[in-house]
Amino acid sequence: MNLEQKASLLSGRDAWSTEPVGDVPSAVLSDGPHGVRRQTGGTDHLGIHRSLPATCFPPAVAVGSSWDPAVAGRLAAAVAAEARAHGVQVVLGPGVNIKRSPLCGRNFEYYSEDPLLSGALAAAHVKALQAQGVGASVKHFAANNQETDRMRVSAEVDERTLREIYLPAFERVVEQARPATVMAAYNRLNGVYAGQHPWLLTTLLRQEWGFDGVVVSDWGAVNDRVAALKAGLDLQMPGNPTDDAEIVRAVRDGSLDEAVVDRSAARVRAMAERWRAAPGGFDADAHHALARELAAECAVLLKNDGAVLPVGPDVGTIAVVGPFATEPRFQGGGSSRVDPTRVDVPLEEIRRLAGERTVTTDPEGADLAIVFAGLADADESEGYDRTAIELPGEQVELIRATAAAARRTVVVLSNGGVVSLEGWHDDVDAVLEGWLLGQAGGGAVADLLFGVVSPSGRLAETIPLRLQDTPAYLNFPGEQGTVRYGEGVMVGYRYHETVGRPVRYPFGHGLTYTAFAVGDLAVEVTGADSARAALTVANTGGRYGKHVVQLYVATQAGPVRRPARELRAFTKVALGPGESTTVAFDLDARAFAYWDVAEGRWLVAPGDYTVQIGENASMIVAEETVELAGEVLVKELTLDSSLGEWLAHPAVGPAFMDRLTAGMTEEQRAQAAEHAGMLRLVESLPMHQFLGFLPAPLPERTLTELMALSRRQG
What burial class does residue 559 get, using C-beta atoms within 10 Å of its C-beta: 0-12 exposed, 13-18 middle, 19+ buried? Predict the structure, then answer.
C-alpha cells in the first residue's frame, strides 16, 4: 500500500464499516452489548434510526445483578450468532465503566459499582462472543463515568484510584479474554483526551497489559488525529477524509514517523481478516426463550414480607396496574437501543400463568395487586445524566393508592439506574427490582412472581436512602470542564461500609424463595501474599434455588486508607432442598494488595487480613483472620527524608538514636528518654532541617554511613 491507502485504512468508510483497501476487506462494526443494532438504511450512533430486528437481551445493568459469568457468556454467544446473521464482524461491547454515581445516564449499559464483578462478567462475555468468531470492543476506556459534558470533560483521578477502581475491569478483560478491540472514550483523563493519551493507550494498555488488538475511537471522539495515532489509537470511527490527509501531511513533513502508520495499519488489517466468521441464521423463537431464561436470573427480590411471593393458590383476585404492565420498558436509549424481534407484555404473561384466578386492572379489594413502575425512556439515556433518583411523583401516588386499596401489594420496578424506594417502600409487601430485562422481561417477571423460577439476583450496586448519601454527590458531575474524583477508592459500598452510612439495600443484597446457610469457613495461608478459602453452602429450605457466595477481604495493613471491606471472589451455586456443596477460592496477591503510588506497583503489606463471607456487603455471616508476611518495604533514606522516616527505619532508627545520644551522661540519657515523646513534634521535619536544631552537629560521615545502611536494607 502507498501512504494514502494506509492512512485511509485507519479511518472508517462510513458510520459502521472500515475502508476496503487492496486485498484488505471491509469490516462491519455494530453496536450491540445486549443485542445487534445493524443499520442498513439511515445510520446514526445514537439509536435514532431503525435497525434490523434482533433479540434484545437483558442489558448489562441486569446481567450485573445475575452475578453469574455463565449468564453473560450465554447472552454473548447468542449475540454473536445474530451478528453473523447480520454480517457484523465486531460488536461494540461490553461496557465496563464503574457506576460511580447513580445519576449517570448510561448506567444501564454498565454492570456494577465493583471492578471485580464488572471484570468477571465482561471477560465471560468477550470470551463467549469471540469463541463464535465475532470480535468484541470493550469500552469506554477510561474513567468515562458520566454523560454531562462527556465529549470534553476532564476526569481528575489519582493513580491509586484509577488502578484499584476504574482500570481493573479493563485489565481483566484484556489479559484474560484478549478482545479484538478496545474503545477509547470521549472524555479527557487528567487533562488529556483518552483517545490521544500515550500512557493510557500505549504504556498501560499495550506495554503493561499486553494488548495486541485495535484501539478504536468512540464515534466522533477524535480531536487531533495525528496526536491520537502517535498515542496508540489505530482506527477512527466514523471516517474523516480530512484527517486521513492530515496523517499523510504529517508523515511527509517529518512530524509523524511512517512506522507508526504502518503499525496501526497492520493492526486494522489483522482485525479485518481475523474476525470473518461464516454467516448464518438464528432461531428468533429460541433466542427469545433464552432471553426470558436469562432475564429471570437477573431480577432482584428486594423485599418479601410475609412470603407474599410467589403467588400462592390462596390468591383469588390479582390486580395488575401501572403503565409498564402493558407498555413495558425493557432497554435504555442511545446507541445500544435494539429493534426487538418481539416483546413480552407483562399483563398478558401474568394472565397466562394465573390459571383460574381473576386478573383485573382494578386494585380495590384485590387479594394481590402488582404495580409496574419505574422510569420512562426519556428519564435516562445516553447523552445526558439524571438529576435525581426519585420515581416520578405520579408513580409514587399510584403505588401508595394501590397499597391502600388492595390486601397485599407487590411493586415491580423497571429502571436502568438506581431509583429511590423512599416514600412508598414501607407501604408495600414486596419489591422486585427488574432493572431493564430485555424483550422477554415481561415473561421472566411472570415466571418469578408465580414461582416458576426462584429469584436469584443480587444487587450489583447500592440502593441509597438519599442521593446526598452517595460518595460522589459533592463532585458529580463537576464544573467548568472538570470533574474531580474526590472520593478516591471509596466508591459505592466501599464508602457506605467504611463510614457506616445507612442504605436502603446494600450491594450484594437479594432474597429468594428458599433458604441457604454457609459454614465451616477455613482459610489457609498458601504463600507470603496468597491464601485459600473453603466453606460449605447448604440449601436449608424447601425449594430449588441459587445462592451467590460473596467473599470480601478486610484489612488496615499498609500505609494507605483501606475500605472496610472489598469484594475479592464470588460464585453462584445451584442446590436442591437439603443439598450442600463445598466452595473453594484461591486468593492471589491482588486479593490483598493495594496500589502503592510511591513504588508504582501492587504491594501486599505485612499484617492481618480478615476473609469474610457476606450475605451482602453489610451482613457478614462468617470470617477468619490470617496473617500474611507480605512484602516489607524499607525505604532508602536521604537528608530530605523526614525525621519520622529515619526513626521508623528498622535498622537506621536504632543506630541513629545511638549516635544521637552518644556522649550523653546517664542523667542526660534519662532526661532524653523522659521527653522522647517530644520528638513527635518535629517528626515531620526533613532531616536536613532537624540537624540544625541539634546542640552539636552530627558528623557528615555518620550520616553518610546511616544512609548507606538504609540502601543495603532496602
Answer: exposed
